[in-house]
Amino acid sequence: MYLKENFLQLCFNFNNDQTFINNLWHEIEQKYSEKERHYHNLNHLETMLSELEPVKNKIVNFSNLSFCVFYHDVIYDAASKYNEEKSAEFAATKLEQLGLNKIDITQIQEQILATKFHQKSINEDINYLLDADLSILGKDRQTYLAYTKKIRKEYLIYPDLLYKPGRKKVLQHFLELESIFKTDYFIDKNEIQARENIEFELKNL
């Protein structure tokens, strides 16, 4: 599996304990395979990594950013407002055990926390992470509609009466931004299609 190989290779740069690293992977695999995860699952991670691959040479610390991809949604509860904080904390604990230094761990935590509000950053690595996280918005209409159904399933705890106004607010926020995406690469690749998709979803909500 591409994801697993990628993660193991990343970890072996810091630690040679194969059993420990395999355990780290199994933990990630289990978390992202929880039954209520219809979108925020292993496929989401795979998509993000494949989106970042072509811009790898533009990213200052690709190793740290890769760890962010693996851990940014490791804790995910649709009813919680603190998923990013908990994921950042979880990542810090595991990566300290793996052998990363404090500076890298702090940077990874900051990058994971940035996925909470998706604000443009002066740190371009963060902008690439955020753009990869939202790249689904700029996919073809069929893929986008499949994504909206998966997101709705993740929020089944909320009836339409609550879900629809909340979703509309999120979508309108995206449309009000000068650009949804923050890096030139993703703006050129996804911006126009993303706006068309969001407008389409809003009309049909």
How would you describe what is shown here?
This protein has ten helices and no strands. It folds into two domains: 1-133, Hypothetical protein af1432 (Orthogonal Bundle), CATH 1.10.3210; 136-205, no CATH class. It is globular and about 55 Å long. With 205 residues, it is an all-alpha fold. Helix 3 packs across helix 7, helix 4 (62-71) packs parallel to helix 7 and helix 5 runs antiparallel to helix 6. The relative contact order is 0.11.
- Tell me the overall shape: globular
Mean pLDDT across every amino acid position: 97
Strand content: under 5%
Structure annotation, total helices = 10
Round the Cα radius of gyration to an integer and report it: 17 Å
**Which fold name corresponds to the CATH topology of the largest domain?**
Hypothetical protein af1432
The tally of domains stands at 2
What is the CATH top level name of the largest domain? Mainly Alpha
* Helix percent band: 55-70%
Number of strands: 0
Corresponding CATH architecture of the largest domain: Orthogonal Bundle
Q: Which regions have little confidence, pLDDT < 50, spanning 5+ residues? A: none
Distance between the termini: 37 Å
Specify the structural class.
mainly alpha
Query: How would a crystallographer describe the biggest sheet?
Result: none
Spell the H/E element sequence: HHHHHHHHHH
Question: Any key phrases for this structure?
Answer:
mainly alpha; Hypothetical protein af1432; single chain; 205 residues
